[in-house]
Amino acid sequence: MRPDDRKMSGKAKLYWGLILLGFLVMEFPGVLFFKGMAEPYIFGLPFIYGFILCCWVYMCVVIFIAFRDNWGEPKEVGTPAPQKGGDMQ
Amino acid sequence: MSPNAWALIIIAFFMLFPLAIGFIAKGKSVATTEDYFVQGRGMGSIAVFFTVAATWWSAFAFLGSNGYFYTTGPMYWTAIAWNILFGILYFGVGKKIWYMGKLNGYITPKDFFVHQYGSVPLGNIIAVIMLLFTIPYLQIQLTGGAYLIQVASGNQISFALAALLFYVVIIIYVWAGGLRAVAWTDIFYGVLLFFGMIFAGFYIANLLGGPAAMFDQLGEEFPGHRILTETRWMNWLAMFIITPVGSFMGPQLWTRMYAVKSGKLFNLMPFLLGFAAVAYIGSALTGNSGKLLYPDVTTLERGIADYILPTVLFNHAPFVLATTLMACGAAAAMSTANSQIHAMSAGYTMDFHKAYINKNMSERSLVWVGRWTILIFSAIAYIMALYVPGLLVTIGLVALGGTAQVIVPTMGALFWKRSTVAGAMAGTLTGIGLLSLFTFKVLTPPGPFASGGGALLALIVNIIVFIVVSYVTKPRPEKLMNELKQQYSDFYHGVNM
Question: How far is CA A71 from CA B263, B271, B381, in A?
Fold first, then answer.
């Protein structure tokens, strides 16, 4: 339930769109195209293994960039809550 | 020293080490329900990552994944995507649940639903679903873990005794240290699990000349084992959705959202959890190598595909190495089982005992009820492990299919103002009902859903019923909506983050 004065930014939409694209390729409808493909081998792995591994690299890169950019949202500048003593930092 | 003596020493170490951690954790405990069940909402970043990852990865991942690669080729490789989806859920949904939990003092999942929808009956339905469907998932941890201890000991310890030992250890440290003990031991388990999976896979593939040579050989001997069969794409898709969603909605993961100290950690979790998916390379190598080494499933331990890893290791690796890797697998099972027992204990104690049996109990007494509940749930799972057979992944998918239904009212509460109590109840009960009919084979899922998509179909029907019923029933009270609107506004503006 996002308030009207905090609409999702263009960058946030881009990151979520790129992540959605990755899932579409890895899962559905992507699976319909690669389900029966054993070749070509990628990195010595049958196609499905190598292809999904490439998609995994893509997703990790997109997610890491999104994280570095605070997922396209403005930095959280609100009042910090009083913290109780935590452990195992 | 004989190999069997070494095996017992290694197992003893793996049993005693978490006990020691548990007792150290006990020293920091305070006798309140908030401390015992959600660690006083003060869990730091290292503990959060490892306890979430280790709880998420279970016997399902360590043993079941190998068995699935062994029997169905690349089917389990969809796990790479579902690990990423799990991380995305933890950030996109989990962070909001954490924030609401912190603001409103939620301890159990039921607290969330009772407050967000203003309905105790809905909260009770969700709490019962979570308890019922977590027990089979707990059972597979016990089955997997006990079997690993049995084989790691060279059959000196029977399955029944191994299961008993497994649970006695968990009960002792969860009893003593609550969530803090569980989270700290999960750091130990998580490291073992991650490296154990990868190392075992490469070790076994190297028996066949390395990963590339192994896959070349697989192409020659079992060419069909490198692809998904024509109808199994639905299974690929259903597992991708049901596994992470079902696991994420398990009570043990709700606890791990409420307990987090800082919201910033949620932003990083998708990357950390997605990156950790690389460990499945180990499972893929183990399962496919196993197919070449032991093409006939009846030659495996017990004739069950789940046991391809112990079969290969104990026949092809030095005994001490095999025992150590088996202990890593037991760690995977233990790290999930401890969290499930702890979360179920919290659910019963706070949602039912405190709400209906003794409303005026002191905090200290409630913690004791939680401890005794741990014993009871453990006993149920122990009996099920001894008498209810089944493949780990098969049982696991039924359990996850049940908890996955809870995502619909959860997302409704967080993202859709028009969601209603009636919609949430109707959708969830329809989804659970349909899943039960598919599970007990009263109905067969139609069309492509027949290939492993029953739980996904139940989820889709759940969503449709939820939306339709919400549109035609009375919205949530205006007073409640105004209160929630302010809280969500604070979340998006980073207030008290």
Answer: 14, 12, 41
